[in-house]
Amino acid sequence: MQSYLFTALFISIFLAPLIGDSATGIVFEDLNKNGTREPSEPGLAKVAVSNQKEVVETDAEGRWTLPHDEDTIFFVIKPKGYAPPVNDEQLPLFYYIHKPAGSSSETRYPGVPPTGALPKSIDFPLVRVADEPEKFQAVFFGDPQPRSQDEVDYIAHDVLTELVGTDAKFGVTLGDIMFDNLSLFEPSNANIALIGIPWYNVIGNHDINFEAETDAESDETFHRYYGPQYYSFDYGAVHFIVLDDVDWGHHPGKKKKTYRAGLNADQISFVKNDLALVPEQKLVCLMMHIPLMDVGNRSELYRLIENRPYTMSISGHTHWHAHFYIDEEDGWEGDEPHHHIVNVTVSGSWWKGQKNEVGVPHATMRDGAPNGYSIITFDGAKHTLDFKASGHPAEYQMSVFAPDEIASVNSAKTPVYVNLFNGSKKSVVKLKVKDRGGWVEMKKVEEQDPYYVAMRQREMAANPNAKLNEPIPSWHLWKANLPADLKLGSHLLMIEGTDAYGRVHTGQRILRAVE
After folding, report:
1. pLDDT digits (tens, 9 = 90+) for 267-281
2. Predicted TM-score (pTM) above 0.90
3. What domains, with CATH codes, occur in the chain?
């Protein structure tokens, strides 16, 4: 006790003038789950709290103290075995916004209303979780990106209803929650809440106020609905860090305000201070909107994580799906390459394409993969991603493209393409004609998927006003020619392909050989 009093006295006399204005509060166990601390509810020790730059741990009584200015967001970093409360939209309430005068800029979409004077104590409730396993699932959405209520409804019909009742412990939207129209946050949040699990959000370049002059001001509508634009939390054996890599404003060489991919100095400081309290053996999962390889100052981030044995990262933004293994060619200095996932998008090709029987566009992505989402299973320091195509069974993991009919003499000149949606450079894809020889290993190619090319041509021929996006080279496409001199008649093509995690998936296609 004397040691604690001496420390408090030392801080008040010697450090307070250096810290400036400080906020304080208690992280407590909310036994009755009402969000308010009762005298009988204990403080929780050694729980991390941040002001988006510094990170401190609570003392033995659960108390924390941090400096602030007039535009600060404080948040508790959820520890394993506890959970923050959620609101009616299943959005976690782990933060307190201090903006006494409210948002600093007038924009079309409102920011944070005035919060008034700083409370004497900012208390964060946490509820003890009886079972927070080290093996669990989480859902990841890339770019739902609706621009209208109709597109909010597309998401509901195409994705959300099949997720109701999921075993996943929480979900994450990896940015571009909206497509510029931020008034749709509310109906979108209400729909996602029906899945029934806590939902975290990353800010994207279409989730900001474009009228704002600075990057800080552009985030204020996001703050209103979701709190801090970068933060962290623990679940199981994993430490998750949400990043804001959308840097908005007036940039050199640009005539107009725009965005670029980057992390500001406070955010880098937060990650450094946050990781200082995270054990080396934990898996650290970075979640962002723009892919890590495009972030201008990513080397600063690399230096903070590359000496850890277990790291991974995931993003959205591009509207195609891929696995990358970042190594020394990109400035990574870790012993093993860093695994970065560019996640499949919910909106696919921005909700374009012919509509199905329930009025939802097929939205096939430009790399030939269907729109959808990911489910990642975390197990200690390991992870496995399942690619889930919207509206399809879980087994739908590839498309096979080949002609319906070929001339038998030309079979050896006829290519077959396989788009293994969750494939990577680590995958092996094989082709076999049933009852005709053995397996042939296919070659990974970076070409446009002919399946998407043909579909786009058909739709644009039927509707000249169709605006399907141009195809791009796919990161998960394989190619091989058929065996020579296929006999006349129908043939079954059989495909085996290993995904990025070594699991084998199968596909089939029928074609016929004629004279």
Report:
1. 999 999 999 999 999
2. yes
3. 17-126 (2.60.40.10), 138-389 (3.60.21.10), 398-514 (2.60.40.10)
